[in-house]
Amino acid sequence: MNLYSQLKQAHEKEVNSFPMKFAFSDDQFNQSMQELGLTKDDTDKVISIGAGGFIRKIDIEAYRELFARMEREHDQAIENDTTGTGFIKDMFKYELGNHEYGYTYEINDTLRALSLTYEEVKQSDKLQQGLKLATEECLQSVE
Question: Which one Pfam family would you cite for this protein (predicted)?
């Protein structure tokens, strides 16, 4: 299985189990507050995380640590792939596919999704190698 996909799935499972809610109507907000063990009037006990999402204020540090740890795990997986033929290739292949590289031949969205720049890729032999292998595999799968 794709190593990057495995990490993304593990992170997704953790995020989905974190006590955060999203609401786009009063009814959804009231239901979400109840699910967090709060009443609709306990608005002083929650904080917005943007895009209609909110968490309990008591969970702020856990929320920050969750996302910081996931970023560290991602960065560590890149660091551990010394050749670019493992996690890095899988990372690029997953995101190239997700951003339809096989049809567009465009990598800007892929790099943006990975918070990488052209310069960062150019300065790293293993990132270059992983991107090269991933683009080749993506194009072969389209043929």
Answer: DUF7659
